[in-house]
Design a protein that fits this description.
Elements: E1 2-7, E2 11-18, E3 21-29, H1 36-49, E4 59-64, H2 69-81, E5 86-87, E6 97-98, H3 108-121, E7 125-130, E8 134-140, E9 145-153, H4 155-165, H5 185-212, E10 216-220, H6 224-227, E11 236-237, H7 241-254
Parallel strand pairs: 1-4, 4-5, 6-9, 7-10, 10-11
Antiparallel strand pairs: 1-2, 2-3, 7-8, 8-9
Helix pairs in contact: 1-2, 3-7
Length: 255
C-alpha cells in the first residue's frame, strides 16, 4: 500500500492506495505544531479504524506547501513506518516541463495536480483547485507543459472575510441557496459567494481559452462539489486529483 499525504495551508488530505485504487482517504487540520509522534499515532489510528494495517505500507509520498510540517512528517514516516518518504520538490521526476519565469516558484501541489490532470484527461487542460485558502487555475498544454495559472481568493477565505470585516454579517454555512435572489441575510451571502465564485470561474476560464485555445476544465479541492455544479465551463469534478498525482509521481520515481 502507498500512503499519499497532501499538506495544504488549512487542511491535510491523506489517502491510501492499493495499486491504482484509492481505498480510503481522510482530511485533517494542518497543524504545524504537531509532533512526529502525534502525526504517527493519528495516521495509524485512522488506518486501523478503516480496517487497514499500517504495517502493510510499502511507500509514502508527501506534497507540502507548509515547510515546517514537512520534516516532521518525514521523521514520522521513518519512526512509525520504517520508510523513507518521497517528498515532491526539486529533483523529483514528474515528466512535466514548467514554462514559468521561475520554475521554483510553482508550488509542489500545483505540479502534482497538473501531472494528474494531464495523465487522466490529456491536454490542453485547465485545473481549477477550490481549496479553503485560494482558488487556483493551472493551464497544461497539449504537450504536457505547465504554462502558468491564476490565483484568486478561496471560497472559505471570502466568506470568513465578510464575517470578520462587516459588523452585522454573520458567519454562515457554505451551501447552495435556493435562488440567486436572497430574501434574508444568510441567503444573500450564500448567493453572492456560490454564484459569485461560479461566475469568477467561468470568466477566468473564458479568458484563458481566448488566449490559449479550448481546454478540458477539471475542478478539484475542498469546495469543488459546492461551486463546480454552478459553473458553465467545468466539465469534470475530481476531488481526489492531488492524491492520484502523488501516486503517479511515486511510481515514476520509486517504481
Amino acid at each position: 500500500m502507498l500512503l499519499a499525504v497532501d499538506v495544504g495551508n488549512t487542511h491535510t488530505t491523506l489517502g491510501v492506495f492499493r495499486g491504482e485504487a484509492l481505498v480510503h482517504s481522510w482530511r485533517i487540520v494542518t497543524e504545524p505544531s504537531r509532533t512526529a509522534d502525534e502525526y504517527g499515532l493519528l495516521i495509524t489510528s485512522l488506518m486501523e479504524h478503516a480496517g487497514l494495517d499500517p504495517r502493510g505500507l510499502r511507500g509514502v509520498a508527501i506534497c507540502s506547501v507548509v515547510p515546517p510540517v514537512t520534516p516532521t512528517l518525514e521523521r514520522m514516516c521513518q519512526e512509525y513506518f520504517g520508510l523513507e518518504p518521497l517528498t515532491v520538490g526539486p529533483g523529483v521526476k514528474t515528466g512535466l516541463v514548467i514554462r514559468y519565469d521561475n520554475p521554483r516558484e510553482v508550488g509542489a501541489d500545483r505540479v502534482v495536480l497538473a501531472l494528474a490532470a494531464y495523465t487522466r484527461y490529456g491536454g490542453p487542460t485547465i485545473v481549477v483547485d477550490f481549496s479553503y485558502t485560494a482558488t487556483i487555475f493551472d493551464y497544461i498544454s497539449r504537450a504536457g507543459e505547465y504554462l502558468g495559472g491564476v490565483i484568486a481568493p478561496g471560497v472559505s477565505t471570502a466568506a470568513d472575510a465578510l464575517f470578520q470585516h462587516a459588523a452585522k454579517l454573520p458567519r454562515i454555512e457554505l451551501a447552495r441557496p435556493r435562488s440567486v435572489l436572497g430574501r434574508n441575510t444568510v441567503a444573500c451571502m450564500q448567493a453572492g459567494i456560490v454564484f459569485g465564485f461560479a461566475g469568477l470561474v467561468d470568466a477566468i476560464v473564458a479568458r484563458l481559452e481566448e488566449e490559449n485555445g479550448p481546454a478540458t476544465v477539471v475542478a478539484t479541492g475542498e469546495n469543488a462539489d459546492l461551486i463546480a455544479p454552478e459553473c458553465r465551463r467545468v466539465g469534470h469534478v475530481d476531488p481526489c486529483l492531488t492524491l492520484d498525482g502523488l501516486r503517479l509521481i511515486y511510481e515514476r520515481n520509486r517504481g
